[in-house]
Write a structure and sequence with these properties.
Blueprint lengths: L6 H19 L9 E13 L2 E13 L5 E7 L13
Antiparallel strand pairs: 1-2, 2-3
Length: 87
């Protein structure tokens, strides 16, 4: 039997996700990325308590050792403050 999630449980999970995403978006980038790849896709996005499918722009940086990292992301249809520093 699967455990049931109450609305308060979902809200608490979302609050934790919001905090983790805020830390990610405002982190300090320690190294240069000489290569930058921009990609898009459609993801389910929660904005103002509404979940809908939106295009998401993702920047993928490749450092000098060839390791990939995500320096930023955004959903380009909004004009609000940039969550992941892509403008």
């Amino acid at each position: 039997m699967r455990p049931r999630l109450l609305g308060v449980d979902i809200s608490q999970i979302n609050k934790g996700l919001d905090e983790a995403l805020a830390r990610f978006a405002h982190r300090h980038l320690d190294e240069d990325c000489p290569y930058l790849i921009l990609d898009t896709g459609y993801e389910k996005v929660r904005e103002d308590a509404v979940i809908q499918s939106q295009a998401v722009l993702v920047a993928i940086g490749i450092n000098w050792e060839g390791q990939r990292q995500v320096p930023g992301w955004n959903w380009p249809t909004t004009r609000a403050a940039v969550p992941g520093r892509i403008s």
